[in-house]
Design a protein that fits this description.
Strand content: 5-15%
Strand order of the largest sheet: 2-1-3-4
Order of helices and strands: EHEHEEHHHHHH
Helix content: 55-70%
Number of helices: 8
Number of strands: 4
């Protein structure tokens, strides 16, 4: 299989972390791709021209990160990072959605900041910032209730917080959440996160 990715994409980082945690490094070739390049959609097999995208051995493609993560987790065949059923499955999926939602708002904020200043929307910037802070608040409560779990939801949380540090350090999510900072520091020591830190 081939995973088309960018080293700075937090969504692709989530998949790369799962690959390492599930021991799939030999089964998945990592291929860097620029989704903005000409004909990128055809090359990576995603008509939306977004990464990550996964090319299977039979030449078919999967996207986006939640779909890829579930597929690879199932392929691994070991202890699942996404439970197959039951209440725990829905809890992990909800956490993944929260982490990805924070990323969606953060990415929108980053892209808006790159527009000419006179074209930037204060309304949308404020809305995205509020969504990020509310999301991190909810994340902190979830982690406090269960600090020991490690699953796809927790991977999503850590990738979201890492992206905030990487692209939006001025938001300072850390100050109100010392317990979450401690949890993030601990999970960031895992080899899968160390090896996928975005380049400076």
């Amino acid at each position: 299989m081939k995973l088309y990715y960018s080293a700075t994409s937090p969504y692709a980082r989530k998949v790369r972390v799962l690959i390492m945690e599930q021991g799939l490094q030999d089964a998945v070739e990592l291929v860097r791709a620029d989704p903005m390049a000409e004909n990128a959609a055809t090359r990576i097999g995603n008509p939306l021209s977004k990464i990550p995208a996964l090319e299977l051995d039979d030449g078919t493609h999967l996207f986006d990160s939640p779909v890829i993560c579930e597929y690879l987790d199932h392929q691994a065949g070991g202890e699942p990072l996404l439970p197959a059923d039951g209440a725990r499955r829905w809890s992990v999926l909800k956490a993944q959605a929260l982490g990805d939602g924070i990323l969606d708002a953060a990415l929108s904020l980053v892209m808006e900041s790159r527009r000419p200043e006179e074209q930037q929307s204060e309304f949308w910037q404020a809305r995205w910032i509020s969504a990020i802070h509310r999301g991190v608040d909810d994340m902190a409560e979830d982690i406090q209730a269960d600090e020991a779990s490690f699953d796809l939801g927790r991977i999503s949380y850590a990738c979201a917080l890492g992206y905030l540090d990487f692209r939006l350090p001025d938001l300072n999510w850390r100050a109100p959440h010392p317990d979450l900072v401690e949890w993030f520091s601990e999970i960031s020591r895992r080899e899968s996160f160390v090896l996928t830190v975005p380049p400076a």
